[in-house]
Amino acid sequence: MKTNLSVQNLQCTRCVSSINNALLKINGVYGVEVNIANQRVLVDHTENVSLDSLYKELDKLGYPVATQDLFGERAGEWDLNPVRINQSEKFFKQVAQVVPLLPNFKVLDFGCGTGLVGLHFAPFVGRLVMVDSSPGMLNELHKKLSILALDTTKVELLSDIAKHKENDIDLIVSMMTLHHIEDVSALLAVFFNKLNKDGYIAIGDLMLEDGSFHDEYVPHYGFDPQDICAKLIAQGFQLVQCASFNELSKETKNGLKDFEQFLIIAKK
Ligand SMILES: C[S@@+](CC[C@H](N)C(=O)[O-])C[C@H]1O[C@@H](n2cnc3c(N)ncnc32)[C@H](O)[C@@H]1O
Fold first, then answer.
1. pTM over 0.85
2. Residue 8 belongs to domain with CATH number
3. Ligand 1 centre distance from Cα of residue 180 (Å)
4. Nearest to 38 by CA among 61, 59, 8
5. Which atom number of ligand 1 is nearest to the Cα of residue 69?
6. CA distances, 38 to each of 8, 31, 77, 151 (Å)
7. Coil, strand or helix: which one is 214?
8. Which end of the chain is more exposed for a tag (fewer CB within 10 A), N or C?
9. How far is ligand 1, taken at its centre, from the CA of residue 97, in Å?
10. Whole domain around residue 251: which residue ranges?
11. In total, how many domains does the chain have?
């Protein structure tokens, strides 16, 4: 697999060779490309090399991984895009048709952003756990929650799903976040562990695309949903539904393009 890291302090060919030498010594790393102009390091490695070990090694060498909050920069205008509003409504409606939502349910929205998807569940369930690694997105959600003043549903905001206890969630939802995750199988394993027995997972994301959906780097240009289904089954999930659920048009570098999205629902 390939991991593309945005780092700081890359200056000269000496940086390139010290990064090459150090990373290639890690068991499972078999290729390194350093790009000084883009301040990026592309690492080719096996699945057992953790992101953490790459971060630590680069940090030790003096090239800390840049933690720019790219989503946070767009958080203030996130909800102004009607495509996002529409896709989150469709996602919610389809999930609610399949998963029986109960007042004592705890729903976790992974990559919740400003809460466009997760907040749809608020009137129907007891607790929401909203997880996002972007401080800017969580800040926007926090502002929204203070206006909404939900009285019956308890909401918890978290920056890292690892901080949540295991066997505790009845439904995990995640919309348009999986393609931002380098190691999808590892995340699905985390989801499995966080779910209660009989808990559900609902993942919405892009079908395979040509890379024009994003201007910035993303680890996956959408997915073949069958690949995600196979990964879910490998983790021990039972498939409930796997279908296309939405189409959207987006202005790209090559003009207006249509993209398709899938929704997969599975059960622990
Ligand atoms: C395309 S946005 C989708 C936001 C929201 N689900 C929606 O549909 O409006 C992807 C979100 O995933 C978050 N994200 C990316 N990687 C993450 C990670 N490892 N853990 C938690 N959130 C992550 C980003 O910060 C961003 O808010």
1. no
2. 3.30.70.100
3. 7
4. 8
5. 25
6. 10, 18, 27, 47
7. coil
8. N
9. 24
10. 72-267
11. 2
